[in-house]
Amino acid sequence: MGSMNVLLDTCAFIWLAMPQGRLSKSATQVINDPSNRLFLSDVSLWEITLKHSLGKLPLPANPREWAPRQMQFHQLERWPLETDAIYRSGELPRVHLDPFDRLLAAQAMEAGMTLLSPDVPLSRLGAARVW
């Protein structure tokens, strides 16, 4: 495949950090390829924090402690949310309405990254996706 800049979808990060056998073979290969740079978006940190606070995402520790530890352990770089991605998320086709996913797709598109996600509708938004 060659080296890629890869933005992990929120669920891909959770499945990487809390292994449940849910990562696909291709996803595991992408993650384990040392030539790839792996990123986690601020959008995912926001989604994790929100879902945890609502009781929808149990974690072994609070997100403020858990997420940075997992990012460091799995050698993920933080990807900040930029204004251009916010605007682009509103300009994408209305084929997928989840605001977190729309922001992740917009970020990947703005930065020329590939999304690591099982979420097929992200491709319909125009984002490059592997799973």
Can you tag this structure with a few keywords?
single chain; 131 residues; alpha/beta; Rossmann fold; 5-stranded parallel β-sheet; 7 helices
Describe the structure.
This protein is of the alpha/beta class and 131 residues long. It has one domain: Rossmann fold (3-Layer(aba) Sandwich). Helices cover 50% and strands 13% of the residues. A 5-stranded parallel beta sheet has the order 3-2-1-4-5, sandwiched between helices. The mean pLDDT is 95.
Strand order of the largest sheet: 3-2-1-4-5
Instruction: Quickly count the domains.
Output: 1
Would you identify the regions where 5 or more consecutive residues have pLDDT less than 50? none
Residue-averaged pLDDT, rounded?
Answer: 95
- Distance linking N and C termini: 13 Å
Q: Summarize the amount of helix as a percent range.
A: 40-55%
Largest pleated sheet: 5 strands, parallel
Briefly note the structural class of the backbone: alpha/beta
- Topology as H/E string? EHHEHHEHHEHE
Q: Under the CATH scheme, which architecture would be assigned?
A: 3-Layer(aba) Sandwich
Strand content: 5-15%
Number of strands: 5
CATH topology: Rossmann fold
